[in-house]
Amino acid sequence: MPVTFHSAPTRDLPAEVLYRILWLRSAVFVVEQEAAYDDIDGRDLEPGTVQFWAERDGEVLSTLRLLTDPEGMRIGRVATAPSARGLGLSARLMTDAIARCGTAAIRLDAQSHLADWYARFGFAVDGAEYIEDGIPHLPMLRPAG
Q: Distance between CA atoms of 5 and 17, rounded to whole angstroms?
């Protein structure tokens, strides 16, 4: 089966799709990266939040979320299943999310070792490195325009 790409406001998602998205995020961030934090932070249910995901045969292989912040848009929770890494799925989701933002500024907090990957999409470091849940991160910005 081919990989299919989707996006929808969280509030419009069937429960089973949201479950599979949250399961992948937990598998990557909490289990694989051993970062014990509350992935389910309430922001998924904000009115402007949109989920992006790639799936094959009902399995979510890659996901990210797009939030509306006072200073613009914010991409976060970018996660890909280990078996699907290197296939360009997250790159496609990033491209789709950026397109949805139009000309708005977009922020994200990148794990530091992925800063160059995000730079491919026009993001630049926009502050000092910090540690979150034991993992170095960099604030990044894709300016409006």
A: 13
**pTM for the full predicted model:** 0.94
136 located within any domain: no
Alpha helices in 28-67 (DSSP H): none
CB 143 within 8 A of CB 105: yes
Q: Taking Cα atoms as reference points, which of 58, 68, 92 lies closest to residue 78?
A: 92
Count of domains observed in the chain = 1
Which structural domain range is residue 25 located in?
A: 4-104
Tokens matching residue 140: 């990044």
What confidence tens digit (pLDDT) does each residue in 17-55 have? 999 999 999 989 877 677 766 777 889 999 999 999 999
The answer to whether position 145 is within a domain reads no
Token pair recorded at residue 34: 């051993």
Residue 62 belongs to domain with CATH number: 3.40.630.30
The answer to whether 51 and 63 have CB atoms below 8 angstroms apart is: yes
